[in-house]
């Protein structure tokens, strides 16, 4: 069985690689490290298909080290010990470079097994991960490694690789492959910066383009579009992309940008993640609109209930209404900020006994010289308000809530100032 095109035409030199010029371009940090000849332990962090494995292979070749590859999803401690057993043999005379893909799946004990050997330099470790290494990689490994972040390859950088892929496929099949105008550009832009996806898309286009005519195989733009649907999506419900999209979704609504908010809603829904979109939408209505327009909360809840009831794709319609509404609504975070301040005092030990007037009891012990509940029922007083202490003595007079500048809260403020002024308490 033939290996995938991405493996068959994998770059062999730094000059052949596409993307990551912020790391391997002339004068850039990783390029300078490679040119020095002294390779430290490295951690490559970034999305799939952007050159992490390719660069590890190039480094091994440049340094004449024996390259071993392990994948964290399947490798075991026994695999590491087998590599160690080959140290100081003829084939490892220049040292060993271990490329450990998906290191986040190695547990702490497995990662600790590597420490002795990477510390004394017998093994140079290049680990790759699609997740934030500061969350998933053991601290002792991190402290002995240099982390480099890989980024999605831009369409402009990817286009030459796509064109090369079609040339290679034509040579393999002894065919002239003719691309409709815009086909290569579409693949380069539709694969989410993933070189491997782009290579696979090119190969699939050739496999499904039909029979050649007079030695010419034509690949249409329409076919490329069909084969790359949703290819640009990067989404993993357990990964960084999930939380990044959710964060961008809420920040766009909070920032009153309905266009960006709809974009991120679309990314969530295209990935089929209706529940996360609904949860974050309700949170934003409460947290970011809040008291500036509290009526929005039941409106958004109704839209979310409708979306969950009908499911996708129809559920996108009430959610779109709600997202635009939240984005354009006035904003206030006064209520939850006030609660956070109250909780901070509680965690600092500022509590105190509940005032006697508010306690849920109607009798006093024999040791209480001041008998009685002394609670004043506000509805017995004008404007249903009476001055009495509600906070514990330790917090008496403490202010957590501050009126927002929006029209709604300023109306509340004017009302209560008028009531208290009339009662001589302002």
From TrEMBL:
InterPro entries: AAA+_ATPase (IPR003593), AAA_assoc_2 (IPR032423), AAA_ATPase_RarA/MGS1/WRNIP1 (IPR051314), ATPase_AAA_core (IPR003959), DNA_pol3_clamp-load_cplx_C (IPR008921), MgsA_C (IPR021886), P-loop_NTPase (IPR027417). Keywords: ATP-binding, Nucleotide-binding. GO terms for molecular function: ATP binding; ATP hydrolysis activity; DNA binding; enzyme activator activity; single-stranded DNA helicase activity. One of its GO terms (biological process) is DNA-templated DNA replication. Signal peptide: none annotated. SUPFAM superfamilies: P-loop containing nucleoside triphosphate hydrolases (SSF52540), post-AAA+ oligomerization domain-like (SSF48019). Residues 38-154 form the AAA+ ATPase domain. Gene3D superfamilies: 1.10.8.60, 1.20.272.10, DNA polymerase III clamp loader subunits, C-terminal domain, P-loop containing nucleotide triphosphate hydrolases. Pfam families: AAA, AAA_assoc_2, MgsA_C. Belongs to the AAA ATPase family. RarA/MGS1/WRNIP1 subfamily. This is Replication-associated recombination protein A. It comes from Candidatus Gallacutalibacter pullicola. The lineage of its organism: Bacteria, Bacillati, Bacillota, Clostridia, Eubacteriales.
């Amino acid at each position: 069985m033939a290996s995938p095109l991405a493996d068959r035409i994998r770059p062999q030199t730094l000059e052949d690689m596409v993307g990551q010029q912020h790391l391997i371009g002339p004068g850039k940090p990783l390029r300078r490290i490679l040119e020095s000849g002294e390779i430290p332990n490295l951690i490559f962090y970034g999305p799939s298909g952007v050159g992490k494995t390719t660069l590890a292979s190039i480094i091994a070749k440049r340094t004449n080290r024996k390259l071993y590859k392990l994948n964290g999803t399947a490798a075991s401690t026994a695999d590491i010990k087998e590599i160690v057993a080959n140290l100081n043999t003829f084939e490892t005379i220049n040292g060993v470079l271990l490329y450990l893909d998906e290191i986040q799946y190695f547990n702490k004990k497995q990662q600790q097994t590597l420490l002795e050997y990477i510390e004394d330099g017998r093994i140079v470790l290049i680990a790759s991960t699609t997740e934030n290494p500061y969350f998933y990689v053991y601290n002792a490994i991190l402290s002995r490694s240099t982390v480099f972040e890989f980024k999605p390859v831009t369409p402009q950088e990817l286009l030459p690789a796509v064109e090369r892929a079609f040339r290679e496929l034509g040579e393999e099949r002894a065919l002239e492959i003719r691309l409709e105008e815009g086909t290569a550009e579409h693949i380069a832009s539709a694969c989410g910066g993933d070189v491997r996806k782009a290579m696979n898309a090119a190969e699939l286009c050739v496999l499904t383009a039909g029979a050649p005519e007079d030695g010419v195989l034509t690949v249409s733009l329409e076919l490329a579009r069909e084969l790359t649907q949703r290819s640009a999506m990067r989404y993993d419900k357990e990964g960084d992309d999930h939380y990044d999209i959710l964060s961008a979704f809420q920040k766009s609504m909070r920032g009153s940008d309905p266009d960006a908010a709809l974009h991120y809603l679309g990314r969530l829904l295209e990935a089929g993640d209706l529940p996360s979109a609904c949860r974050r939408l309700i949170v934003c209505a409460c947290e970011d609109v809040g008291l500036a327009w509290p009526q929005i909360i039941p409106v958004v809840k109704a839209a979310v209930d409708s979306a969950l009831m009908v499911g996708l794709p129809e559920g996108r319609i009430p959610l779109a209404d709600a997202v635009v509404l939240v984005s354009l609504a006035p904003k206030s975070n006064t209520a939850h900020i006030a609660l956070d301040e109250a909780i901070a005092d509680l965690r600092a030990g500022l509590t105190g006994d509940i005032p006697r007037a508010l306690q849920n009891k109607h009798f006093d012990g024999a040791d209480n010289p001041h008998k009685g509940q002394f609670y004043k029922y506000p509805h017995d007083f004008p404007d249903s308000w009476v001055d009495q202490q509600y906070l514990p003595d330790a917090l008496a007079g403490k202010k957590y809530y501050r009126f927002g500048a929006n029209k709604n809260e300023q109306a509340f403020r004017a009302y209560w100032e008028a009531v208290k002024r009339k009662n001589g308490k302002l």
